Hints:
Layout: H1 3-8, E1 23-26, E2 29-32, H2 33-37, E3 44-46, E4 52-53, E5 56-57, E6 60-65, E7 68-71, H3 72-79, E8 95-97, E9 100-102, E10 121-124, E11 127-130, H4 131-138, E12 152-153, E13 156-157, E14 160-163, E15 166-169, E16 187-189, E17 194-196, H5 197-201
Antiparallel strand pairs: 1-2, 1-3, 4-5, 5-6, 6-7, 8-9, 10-11, 12-13, 14-15, 16-17
Amino acid sequence: MTDSMNYCFRCYKCYKLLVKESFSAKEDGIICGKCRRGCSENVETASPVSTVKNNNIRSQSFLTKGTDIYCNLCHEKKFARICVSFNQALTTGGVNYQEQPWHSECFVSSSCQKPLAGTRFTSHEEKAFCVDCYKTTVAKKGSGCQNPITGQNKHTPTNVVNYEGSSWHEYCFNCKKCSLSVANKCIVANPRDIFCSECAKKL
């Protein structure tokens, strides 16, 4: 332990130097045996300190926050992010979704439970779905082709046409007779089919 560490490693109550003394860890810092005996709280006791390296003190690991020293358990309770699904601390990594932390293994598709970390997924009513589950259980089906409307087709954005309470892929919203797109055009429709104005005149 360096001289500066020797000087700073003291009981937080009586300021006694603890380099060669037994000590205990509390949320407020480290405490000598004498002060600990007058404390009613449960504390973790450690052997006399011989070396400090990467915040590891003998067999017990400690973490620092500013000038304070914490055992792993106290540091976790006080500062760690808590997974909203598992209600346990995130010690490494994790996923942020809707400004809340999740363990990577807890962040799964609401339908099939497939892990979503690092993959494409879609949100619906504050729930996350993998691409396949969204297509089969959530996405509207195009009235023309009955395929899911996902907003994207082979990496190309898909426009959607809403007509008479039904939804269509733009590339499916075509005249029944000439097969040309009637999106953003005047149309004539019957209960089953849609026609462009020109083809409607020939019916």
